[in-house]
């Protein structure tokens, strides 16, 4: 199954700490050689300060060897940590103190730049050591304190998001994600290339959130498919994200929007079919472009295998299979007027009895206008063509109402205009300091018509 | 210097300028004269006359009778003015001569019936008037003319060519007739003068090979005085007159020259070398360039160089001679081992003066000149490559140059990139101005390889030495020479075919990387490094073009979309726009080859719908525009033309467009047969169809267009076999399809598309006839496999184009037969129109009153507006509706009176009343609609 594995591609766009969960997952699935995986892990760890973890991995990899340089590094790291901690402590205390007692601490106490930098460095160090909760906490302080123009502001947001993800704190992660997205989108300073890179990262990091947060699957469609900048980023930088987008759309519960979304998705998939293809996108292509139900069925089976081995998508395997079946069936029904149950069962990967039960359920739940001919073993669709009479009625239904509305609006507008005129006259009278009635006489000479209106109002 | 070169350039100009420029030239010569000479009244008059005579002679030569007549009238007037002088001096011989010649000439023309017929009306008229006039006029001079004719018959040698066709001949005669008298005259002059004259004559005869040198060769003195003769000499010279007239003028001039020469000599003595005689062959020149004793070092050479260069651009400088001089100088510096610095400096200047040789910017260099230039650049590159310690640059100031001191790196002012760019441009110009169907074109095109070679070398050189900006520029040059060439080598390699023989294979390997790789590398560098927008735009376009040419459709498309060029290309300059058009066309053709018919159509639509594809692609000017532009514009446009070897075949383009339009339009037409709101996909295609229909007799198709039209007709009937045979046959193959590199694939694709679209058309057209139809039959009919048929039909059903559904157990298509009847169709249309009407009214109200009118949300309306367009007013809609009502109910409804009467009340301007009328009508309509059904 290694050919459909995207870990290597995705890892390019992730922080090294975020790759560990992926590697853990892979080692469980045993697609790759365990030994190589451990090697990879060790390489990843070499640039972090998670020395203990590294030692564990090393021991796993070479059980009989002594760990060479790691011990020294450990002491070094610990010392550094201590030092940073001592530097940061007073600052944090100050911050806490002021947060509790006085909200505008920024002004009362000249919070100097180097304090902020220290805070940031400490948070970063914490993160590198694998202490994500600590990092998240300090980064929170940092974000509250610094203006958006600070050079570390964006980095702190990224760090916060990563920490929240790694702590599996999805609510908070979602919030951070939105904030980060706003920052990136509103950033006018960076070059298009930089924004593109930032967006690509965001897309990848957000996968963690979207596939774990309960509302994630709606948001992923909104973000990836309907935000042109992000869609562009996907098309240019990482077409493999289409797999996740497709899965999200197929498993999406919202039936009403689905058709339109699918249409848009098919367009994108077709456009990108030359750069990226996997069973999941091919499934959609088979179903909605070629209407080739047999191969759709084949692809569905392949999809299963792909989903099981994908870190993000394992959770939605059930949903996916169920929905995909429904899709096949729905499309099938729209095209056909008479289907034999045995064939359907074959297509849906079920036994005939199961299939029949499934269809009966569908009919009962009123999602399908059909009847079963049990003698021949056929499902007969109801005819849902709209007669021209009905069409004409539909089309002309609202016309008179709309016309009336228009007429009323015109009247309203005219009376409104009249009232305005009267108001103007009255104020004019005030200016002239005469009584309105006298004014009307006065104006009589000028314009008969206008005065008439004014008088009747007065 | 100026004076020395003066006569020569003067002469050259004269060869070129036959017509009116002549007068200007002469006048300008006069200007110089007038400064010095106060002429007698007689001189003035005579000059005026001679000028006029000259013009007349010119007009005679080009048979411009109108001009002749005009000038003749002027001449008569001028003659009258100078009557007093004439009385004193007698009628001048040249005047008589003209009169005689003119009469002869006119008679001759008059006799020539054929020629007269060819004349345009104006000229013919002028001819007859002039003939009458001159007859009358000549009566006054009968005696003189007679005597002149006598003289002529006596000495035929001297005058035979007097009425000849060439201007130069005139002077030749002048010279000849002068021969006898001049030497005696000259002997009276100071010895210096004669010496000088000799020199001048010498040089003149050398530098002008095209002149009849045998004339001058015999005695040089004569040609020396030639320039002075300009003004008066053209007249046929009676000996007496000449003596008096010309010698006087000469005296003035001679004095002038003497003075100048004295100056010059003094100057030369100071400088320590002899004076320069430009243009003499090198052997003679060398000793003259520097005095014998002079030690030739770099300072001296540089000084000399600047001196030569100072003459540059000045009026009357002989450019050819200057080039020779520079060459000589280069030779000298080479002989004396003055070092590369100086050599490079001189080379730069040689190339520059080669470019200068042609003063007119619009004209193109002569190929041989250009080749010389090519060689020079090649040598220059050799030197640059051999010596890595030379810095050249535009911004090195003249005085900070280091030419001589060899232990420091040389610094030379000059930009080789500009020179190469200019060379390349000249190459394009040469190609533009050569007849593309001649052998000459092929010969010139062979030099393209050398140009590429030079650019490649320059590229190597600049990659190590140049700034990024320069590298970008030279990369662009390289790209421009690569992008339009199909890489057959790579193509063959991708097909897996190796060269047949071993040697060919070796050659292939040695030739290096694919053009695709090169393009990629160069373009990406430019994308990253370029600061000017233009170079990047060009690079992107070329890159896309190259992708498209090699059928890498997706890359090409993505690049086009990502670059967002479509948005702002209209602000670019015309050459870039032409490149853009070419790219779009190539993109369209590429899409077609890949079977993306819709994309192909979209890409080609803009170019083809204008009907000016030729002009838009820079492949020729359209004739009908001739009135709209003047000569100047035309010249500019001509300069923008793409050379022939880069052309995109226009017939291929049109065919691709028409075929893709056919594949889109025919099924669409079949599907929307009754739809009133049907829109044409391609106007041009419809136009072709109409042209086809208009023909009274339909023979077998001949041209490409006829083939497509015939195929469309067949396809309309769902007859794919006939359609196929019209699109793909011998004729079309040779005309169009064989032009593609992968002919076979394209043809297969095309057949398949024809089958599919015919199937669709068939279903649309005949679905009303069938109750059900088996898919197997369909697949047999159209020779498509079952899954494809299934997929096509499914798609039609899903998109609700075909009202049918599949019956799975029997594998048939069952028609629903719910297509509305024509009456129902009209009712539906009416309903739709009503909806549009309401909406329009709301919009009108909105526009007038602000946002009060609408109660439904704006998105809905937005969608509608997109379909409808803004410009249809509500009133128009009303009338449309009433017409529709009328037609609908003519069949037999008593109510139509009502609707008609209401529509008669319509033209009231007050909005409210219109609205009320409309409201009533609307209700009636809705009611009628429903009642009718």
Automatic annotation (TrEMBL), chain A:
Keywords linked to the UniProt accession: Cytoplasm, Initiation factor, Nucleus, Protein biosynthesis
Pfam families: eIF3_N, EIF3E_C, PCI
Gene Ontology annotations for the cellular component aspect, listed alphabetically: eukaryotic 43S preinitiation complex; eukaryotic 48S preinitiation complex; eukaryotic translation initiation factor 3 complex, eIF3e; nucleus
Major localisation: cytoplasm
InterPro entries in the cross-refs: eIF3e, eIF3e_N, PCI_dom, WH_DNA-bd_sf
Protein family: Belongs to the eIF-3 subunit E family.
Any GO molecular function: translation initiation factor activity
GO biological process, one term: formation of cytoplasmic translation initiation complex
Origin: domain of life: Eukaryota
Keyword Protein biosynthesis in record: yes
Limits of the PCI domain: 209-386
Name of the protein in its database record: Eukaryotic translation initiation factor 3 subunit E
Compartments in which it is found: Cytoplasm; Nucleus
SUPFAM superfamilies xref list: Winged helix' DNA-binding domain
Gene responsible for this protein: EIF3E
Quaternary assembly: Component of the eukaryotic translation initiation factor 3 (eIF-3) complex, which is composed of 13 subunits: EIF3A, EIF3B, EIF3C, EIF3D, EIF3E, EIF3F, EIF3G, EIF3H, EIF3I, EIF3J, EIF3K, EIF3L and EIF3M.
Source taxonomy: Eukaryota, Metazoa, Chordata, Craniata, Vertebrata
KW Cytoplasm (keyword) present: yes
Automatic annotation (TrEMBL), chain B:
Keyword Cytoplasm in annotation: yes
A Pfam entry, by short name: EIF3CL_C
Annotated Acidic residues bias: 202-217, 259-271
Predominant cellular place of this UniProt entry's protein: cytoplasm
GO process terms (BP): formation of cytoplasmic translation initiation complex
Record key words, sorted: Cytoplasm, Initiation factor, Phosphoprotein, Protein biosynthesis
Places the protein is found: Cytoplasm
GO cellular component, one term: eukaryotic 48S preinitiation complex
Transmembrane regions: none
Location of the PCI domain: 644-820
One MF term in the entry's GO annotations: translation initiation factor binding
Basic and acidic residues composition-biased segments: 182-192
Annotated SMART domains: PINT (SM00088)
Region (Disordered): 155-233, 252-273
InterPro entries documented for this protein: EIF3C, EIF3C_N_dom, EIF3CL_C, PCI_dom, WH-like_DNA-bd_sf, WH_DNA-bd_sf
Gene3D superfamilies cross-referenced by the UniProt entry: Winged helix-like DNA-binding domain superfamily/Winged helix DNA-binding domain (1.10.10.10)
Oligomeric and partner information: Component of the eukaryotic translation initiation factor 3 (eIF-3) complex, which is composed of 13 subunits: EIF3A, EIF3B, EIF3C, EIF3D, EIF3E, EIF3F, EIF3G, EIF3H, EIF3I, EIF3J, EIF3K, EIF3L and EIF3M.
Similarity annotation: Belongs to the eIF-3 subunit C family.
Function: Component of the eukaryotic translation initiation factor 3 (eIF-3) complex, which is involved in protein synthesis of a specialized repertoire of mRNAs and, together with other initiation factors, stimulates binding of mRNA and methionyl-tRNAi to the 40S ribosome. The eIF-3 complex specifically targets and initiates translation of a subset of mRNAs involved in cell proliferation. Component of the eukaryotic translation initiation factor 3 (eIF-3) complex, which is required for several steps in the initiation of protein synthesis. The eIF-3 complex associates with the 40S ribosome and facilitates the recruitment of eIF-1, eIF-1A, eIF-2:GTP:methionyl-tRNAi and eIF-5 to form the 43S pre-initiation complex (43S PIC). The eIF-3 complex stimulates mRNA recruitment to the 43S PIC and scanning of the mRNA for AUG recognition.
Classification via HAMAP family: eIF3c (MF_03002)
Protein name, as recorded: Eukaryotic translation initiation factor 3 subunit C
Gene behind the chain: EIF3C
């Amino acid at each position: 199954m290694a050919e459909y594995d995207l870990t290597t591609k995705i890892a390019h766009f992730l922080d090294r700490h975020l790759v560990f969960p992926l590697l853990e997952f892979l080692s469980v699935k045993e697609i790759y050689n365990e030994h190589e995986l451990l090697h990879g892990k060790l390489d990843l760890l070499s640039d972090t300060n998670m020395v203990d973890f590294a030692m564990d991995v090393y021991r796993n990899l070479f059980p009989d060897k002594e760990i060479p340089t790691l011990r020294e590094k450990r002491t070094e790291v610990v010392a550094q940590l201590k030092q940073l901690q001592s530097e940061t402590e007073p600052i944090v205390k100050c911050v806490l103190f002021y947060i509790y007692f006085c909200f505008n601490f920024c002004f009362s106490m000249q919070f100097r730049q180097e304090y902020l930098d220290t805070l940031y460095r400490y948070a970063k160090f914490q993160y590198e050591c694998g202490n994500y909760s600590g990092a998240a906490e300090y980064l929170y302080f940092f974000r509250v304190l610094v203006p958006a123009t600070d050079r570390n502001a964006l980095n702190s947001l990224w760090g916060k998001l990563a920490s929240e993800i790694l702590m599996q704190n999805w609510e908070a992660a979602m919030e951070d994600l939105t904030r980060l997205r706003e920052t990136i989108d509103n950033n006018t300073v960076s070059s298009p290339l930089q924004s593109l890179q930032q967006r690509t990262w965001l897309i990848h990091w957000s996968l963690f959130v979207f596939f774990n947060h309960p509302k994630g699957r709606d948001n992923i469609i909104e973000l990836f498919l309907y935000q042109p900048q992000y869609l562009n980023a996907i098309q240019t930088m990482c077409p493999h994200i289409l797999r996740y987008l497709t899965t999200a759309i197929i498993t999406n519960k919202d039936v009403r929007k689905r058709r339109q979304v699918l249409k848009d998705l098919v367009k994108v998939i077709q456009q990108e079919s030359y750069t990226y293809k996997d069973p999941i996108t091919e499934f959609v292509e088979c179903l909605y472009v070629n209407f080739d139900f047999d191969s759709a069925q084949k692809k569905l089976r392949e999809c299963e295998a792909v989903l099981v081995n994908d870190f993000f998508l394992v959770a939605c395997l059930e949903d996916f299979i169920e929905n995909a079946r429904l899709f096949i069936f729905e499309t099938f029904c729209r095209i056909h007027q008479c289907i034999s149950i045995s064939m359907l069962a074959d297509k849906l990967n079920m036994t005939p009895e199961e299939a029949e039960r499934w269809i009966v359920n569908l009919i009962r739940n009123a999602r399908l206008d059909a009847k079963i001919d049990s003698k021949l073993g056929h499902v007969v669709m109801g005819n849902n063509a709209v007669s021209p009479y009905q069409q004409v009625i539909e089309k002309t239904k609202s016309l008179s109402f709309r016309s009336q509305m228009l007429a009323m609006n015109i009247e309203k507008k005219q009376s409104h205009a009249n009232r305005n005129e009267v108001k103007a006259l009255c104020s004019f009278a005030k200016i002239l300091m005469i009584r309105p009635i006298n004014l009307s006489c006065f104006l009589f000479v000028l314009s008969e018509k206008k005065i008439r209106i004014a008088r009747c109002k007065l | 210097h100026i004076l020395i070169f003066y006569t020569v350039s003067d002469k050259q100009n004269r060869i070129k300028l036959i017509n009116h420029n002549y007068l200007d030239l002469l006048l300008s010569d006069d200007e110089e004269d007038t400064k010095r000479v106060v002429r007698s009244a007689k001189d003035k008059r005579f000059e005026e006359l001679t000028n006029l005579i000259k013009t007349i002679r010119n007009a005679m030569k080009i048979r411009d009778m109108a001009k002749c007549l005009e000038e003749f009238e002027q001449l008569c007037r001028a003659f009258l003015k100078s009557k007093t002088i004439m009385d004193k001096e007698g009628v001048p011989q040249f005047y008589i001569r003209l009169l005689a010649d003119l009469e002869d000439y006119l008679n001759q023309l008059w006799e020539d019936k054929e020629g007269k017929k060819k004349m345009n009306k104006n000229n013919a008229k002028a001819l007859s008037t002039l003939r009458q006039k001159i007859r009358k006029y000549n009566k006054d001079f009968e005696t003189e003319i007679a005597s002149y004719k006598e003289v002529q018959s006596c000495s035929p040698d001297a005058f035979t060519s007097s009425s000849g066709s060439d201007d130069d001949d005139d002077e030749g005669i002048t010279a000849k007739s002068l021969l006898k008298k001049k030497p005696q005259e000259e002997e009276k002059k100071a010895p210096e003068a004669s010496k000088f004259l000799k020199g001048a004559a010498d040089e003149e005869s050398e530098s002008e090979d095209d002149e009849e040198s045998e004339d001058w060769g015999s005695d040089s003195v004569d040609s020396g005085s030639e320039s002075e003769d300009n003004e008066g000499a053209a007249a046929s010279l009676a000996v007496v007159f000449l003596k008096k007239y010309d010698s006087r003028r000469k005296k003035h001039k001679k004095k002038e020259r003497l003075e100048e020469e004295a100056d010059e000599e003094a100057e030369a003595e100071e400088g320590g070398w002899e004076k320069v005689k430009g243009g003499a062959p090198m052997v003679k020149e060398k000793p003259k360039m520097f005095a014998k004793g002079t030690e030739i070092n770099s300072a001296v050479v540089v000084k000399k160089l600047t001196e030569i260069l100072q003459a540059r651009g000045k009026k009357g400088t002989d450019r050819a001679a200057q080039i020779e001089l520079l060459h000589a100088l280069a030779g000298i510096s080479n002989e004396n081992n003055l070092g590369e610095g100086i050599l490079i400096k001189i080379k730069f200047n040689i190339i520059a003066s080669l470019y200068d040789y042609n003063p007119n910017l619009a004209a193109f260099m002569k190929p041989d000149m250009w080749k010389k230039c090519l060689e020079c650049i090649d040598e220059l590159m050799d030197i640059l490559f051999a010596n890595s310690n030379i810095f050249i640059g535009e911004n090195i100031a003249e005085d900070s140059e280091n030419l001589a001191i060899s232990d420091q790196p040389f610094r030379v002012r000059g930009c080789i990139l500009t020179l190469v760019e200019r060379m390349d441009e000249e190459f394009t110009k040469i190609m533009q101005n050569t007849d593309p169907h001649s052998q000459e074109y092929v010969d010139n095109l062979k030099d393209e390889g050398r140009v590429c070679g030079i650019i490649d070398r320059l590229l190597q050189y600049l990659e190590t030495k140049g700034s990024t900006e320069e590298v970008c520029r030279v990369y662009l040059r390289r790209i421009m020479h690569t992008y339009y060439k199909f890489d057959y080598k790579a193509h063959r390699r991708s097909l897996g075919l190796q060269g047949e023989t071993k040697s060919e294979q070796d050659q292939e390997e040695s030739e290096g990387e694919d053009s695709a790789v090169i393009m990629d590398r160069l373009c990406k560098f430019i994308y990253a490094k370029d600061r000017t927008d233009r170079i990047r735009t060009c690079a992107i376009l070329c890159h896309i073009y190259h992708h498209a040419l090699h059928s890498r459709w997706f890359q090409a498309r993505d690049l086009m979309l990502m670059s967002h060029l479509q948005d702002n290309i209209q602000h670019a300059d015309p050459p870039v726009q032409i490149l853009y058009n070419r790219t779009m066309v190539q993109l369209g053709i590429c899409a077609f080859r890949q079977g993306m018919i819709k994309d192909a159509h979209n890409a080609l639509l803009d170019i083809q719908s204008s009907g000016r594809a030729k002009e838009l692609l820079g492949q020729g000017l359209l004739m009908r525009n001739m009135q709209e532009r003047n000569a100047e514009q035309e010249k500019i446009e001509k300069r923008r033309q793409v050379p022939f070897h880069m052309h995109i075949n226009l017939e291929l383009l049109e065919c691709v467009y028409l075929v893709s339009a056919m594949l889109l339009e025919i099924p669409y037409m079949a599907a929307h047969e009754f739809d009133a709101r049907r829109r044409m996909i391609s106007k041009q295609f419809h136009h072709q169809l109409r042209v086809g229909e208009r023909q009274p007799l339909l023979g077998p198709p001949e041209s490409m267009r006829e083939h497509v039209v015939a195929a469309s007709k067949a396809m309309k009937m769902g007859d794919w076999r006939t359609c196929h045979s019209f699109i793909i046959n011998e004729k079309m193959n040779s005309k169009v399809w064989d032009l593609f590199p992968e002919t076979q694939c394209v043809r297969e694709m095309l057949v398949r598309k024809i089958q599919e679209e015919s199937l669709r058309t068939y279903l649309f057209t005949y679905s009303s006839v069938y109750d059900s139809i088996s898919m197997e039959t369909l697949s047999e009919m159209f020779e498509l496999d079952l899954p494809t048929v299934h997929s096509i039909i499914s798609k039609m059903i899903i998109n609700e184009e075909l009202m049918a559904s599949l019956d799975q157990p029997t594998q048939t298509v069952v028609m629903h037969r719910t297509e509305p009847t024509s009456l129902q169709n009209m009712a539906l249309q009416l309903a739709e129109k009503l909806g549009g009407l309401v909406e329009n009214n709301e919009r009108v109200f909105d526009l007038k009153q602000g946002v009060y009118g609408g109660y439904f949300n704006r998105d809905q309306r937005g969608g509608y507006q997109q379909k409808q367009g803004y410009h249809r007013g509500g009133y128009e809609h009303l009338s449309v509706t009433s017409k529709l009502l009328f037609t609908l109910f003519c069949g037999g409804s008593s109510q139509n009176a009502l609707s008609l009467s209401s529509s008669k009340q319509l033209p009231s301007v007050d909005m409210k009343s219109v609205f009320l009328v409309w409201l009533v009508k609307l209700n009636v309509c809705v009611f009628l609609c429903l009642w009718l059904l």
